[in-house]
Amino acid sequence: MPTAVRPDPRAAERARASTLADRAALVGVADLSDVDRARWRALLVHHPDTAPFVDEAWVAAWIQGFEPRQPLLACLWDEDALVGLGALQRVTESWAGRRVAVLQSLTNVESPRFEFLSAYCRHDVQERLCRGLCEAGGCDVIRLEYLPEHSPTLRAATQVAGERGWKHVIEETFESPWRSLRRPPAAWDEGLHRKFKANLRNRERRLHELGEVTFTVVRDGPAQHAALELFYALEASSWKGARGSAIRQRARARTFYDALAALTAGETWIPTLSVSGRTVAAQLIRAHGRTLFMLKTAYDPAFAPYAPGQLLTGRVMRYGGEQGFDALDFLGENMVWKSDWAPRLRRHYCLLLFSPSARGRYAYWTRHGLRAQLKKIPYARQVVRWLRARWARQ
Asked: Would you call 184 exposed, middle or buried from its count of C-beta atoms within 10 A (0-12, 13-18, 19+)?
């Protein structure tokens, strides 16, 4: 008697995906073939500033850590070759009392940048991916967070929205700093303010008076786990621990960074600065392509007068330059301590597309449309402020 063959639950999805050549499709992460995954890696080369946050390792670690309800990949095949990809998720939210279906980028506070990947010189890919998402249905809002300036996805999505009758809103989220490392090691501090350089030298000298100062970079191997635990403890000892926002206090964030370190052997660096064997500053860095991406930084508050975080950053810059890296990307929004390094700034945006359906229009008007119309009315802002002040007094 022949043995019964159990049906593969993913077979139908794979078959559907295989017939979608020359068009966009939403598929499960597990449904990509080995050939597609190889093409995914090849696409990253054309997006060096965004690649570390949309590659397979990052997506896998993000899904493992934050457990999205329905992670998806927006894919575009052309003659059976994967030429475009974006990592997304389906979520349901309450907007002004109504349930709204949102198709969102696979991002959160731990994700500093996002982009749809495309093959070299394929300027049509993002447009076709966005058009496919709008045509697919099943969502009232499409939200893509942390798109960098000059993003082909940002440009393509707004164009498609206009063609398809979708409302769109672009919101600036932050300006992210980065600094070039392409200079001789002896000139690593080129362009820095004279007072800032003097402060660094002074704090360096005072730190050496406390004991031997050592700089190490753990890049892989058995020591990486111990270094990661050390970073978590150091971060929790600062103001982040007091506020409950340290990684070790957020189970999902910790799972994400643990998984990321395990999946990116050799690319997750943990630089540390120690005084007489005591770690006073540490960082989490993703070394990808020719750029160092600073994911997290922490320092011992007891050593705050010595600015150990800044001293460590200076050593990372020199070390990165010596290792052949071109830039240090600070990521996230600009802050005073980042501005001290005279960086260049890259703007980032959040893009929202609202479908022409009833729920899509409702979502647009309740979140943005009414506000936009009020801004056009003379003195409307002053009236709103007056009403709020009056209600506060009652």
From this structure: exposed
Rounded to an integer, what distance in angstroms lies between the CA atom of residue 271 and that of residue 56? Answer: 24
Amino acid at 98: R
For residues 233-240, give the mean pLDDT: 94
pLDDT of residue 13: 41
**pLDDT score of 7:** 42
Of 75, 56, 83, 86, the C-alpha closest to 154 is 86
Burial class (CB in 10 A: 0-12, 13-18, 19+), 180: middle
Q: How far is CA 177 from CA 108, 116, 335, 339, 347, in A?
A: 19, 22, 9, 8, 9
Q: What does the block give as tokens for 246? A: 């340290």
**Region of residue 274 (left: phi > 0; alpha: psi -120 to 50; beta: else):** beta
The pLDDT value given to residue 188: 85
| Interval 279-286 mean pLDDT | 98
How far CA 343 is from CA of 178, 193, 249, 299, in Å, comes to 5, 12, 31, 21
DSSP 6: P
- Written as one string, the DSSP assignment of 79-110 is TTEEEEEEEEEEEEEEETTEEEEEEEES--TT
Q: How confident is the model at residue 110 (pLDDT cuts 50, 70, 90)?
A: very high
Query: Torsions phi, psi of 389, nearest 5?
Result: -65, -40
Mean pLDDT of 304-311: 97
SS3 328: strand
